[in-house]
Amino acid sequence: MENNIFLNCFRWKKVLTGIRSDQTIFDRSGWSKIPDDSLRLNVLIFGFDSLSHNMWKRQLPKTYKYATENMKGIPLNGYNIVGDGTPQALIPILTGRTELELPDTRKRKGSYAEYVNVYPFIWNDYKKNGYVTAWSEDMVNVGTFTYRLKGFKEQPVDHYMRTFYIEASPKFDREEKFCYGGMSRFNIMLDFMNNMYEVYRDKPKFVFAFHSEYSHDSNNWVVNADDDTYNWLKGFNKKGYFNNTLLILMSDHGSRFAEVRNTQQGKQEERLPGFIFVFPPWFEKKYPEGYANFLNNANKLTTPFDIHETLKDVLHFRGSGKGNLINRGISLFKEVPGSRTCLDAGIEPHWCSCLEWTPLAAQNIIVKQAAQYLKNYLNSLTANHRNLCAKVRLHKIIWSAKLIPNKHMLKFKENSDYDGFVGKMTDKTDILNEIYQLKASFNPGDMIFEASINYHTKTKIFTTSEKDISRINKYKQMTQCIEKANILHHLRKFCYCVV
């Protein structure tokens, strides 16, 4: 018998990463060590660079749907940035202050610059109170605290991924795009969060992971993260990790690319990044008022300063109730006043995304055209059922208004200084879409409708939809034919029965 031995020798060289079990951290942390007035929650923040609220929906649809529907996450629809770029988004979240309110840490100040450790990071408070802490961001060349700022002298958290990315990043160019060692680089970050929960399963955790590579330079690639993030959420959920975790899915700001930023829509989206809070299933029952306030605040003007106050409340809960406009930051467990303005919230005029309704006369030519369009649209909805529903006629324009964007926002072109503190207000942004609101009465039946109507200034085309139209007076007996038909309920508010 002949024996053959084949040897295939090769050299393998990669940089590996994982969470090392540290006995010192184990001894220092624990649920028994956290404050008595805490909400007893892990905090897990997972962010994407440069994704607006709308871009979350467009490019991460499975993730967004699972987080908001299956997990009952609460999106902050009125979340507004307070400055330009990632530092001006994350510094207020993590410290409650702006960069200008903190010691100077800019590299260009040389020996006068302090290390970023001088900032009062909230993860330090969590660490002092029994939490294991972690911070990870993937693009070290544009790091939040290291690109323009001096960075950290001492490691800022218990587990810090910068060391891995510094060592591994030079090798990325030799790999397939977005890959490293046979896996996607995005999954390295997901594994980082998985490992934190596996190693410190029974310990309170404050984990912040921020991914930039897919979305920093373009929003076209981030769609690749949707399936992975969706599966990661499902896996975490199945393991029960979210049963005692406050999950925050977020972004720093919307797209800042020139071709997008030069449009009104782009300027608006830049100022409105995605932000979703997901609470454990038991939280609503245990803290009904705080949870109700969160739901109510979803459509209020909110900022990074509010996120900071909310994170403080997770560690030391100060109750719910009503927020005070005197305070720049308001915990989202409190009710944010509906009268809050950008000035109240600490938002400079050119970063304010709030819109103003300017009343218009009924004789305004666009208003009259919009009213005629609304009449035609209403009739188109019932056209196939003319045997049941009368054709309506415009009777009177009761009220009309036009939605006006913030003029400071439209004028903002870019920053005129290296640090992003001073804006160049020279832009002349074309407004391609105008939004009008109309309240008008129609005969027969004196039906009163309120509608939001879009007007494209170049094509001169009006558009609206059924969901953007409200019937604001009583139907009385005029819709009985629809009720009897029992199959056309969606037409109830639009129909005046002829039989």
Automatic annotation (TrEMBL):
CDD domains: ALP_like
Name this protein carries in UniProt: Sulfatase N-terminal domain-containing protein
Pfam families assigned: DUF229 (PF02995)
Coiled coil spans: none
InterPro entries: Alkaline_phosphatase_core_sf (IPR017850), DUF229 (IPR004245)
Secretion signal, residue range per the UniProt entry: none
GO CC annotation: extracellular space
Lineage of producing organism: Eukaryota, Metazoa, Ecdysozoa, Arthropoda, Hexapoda
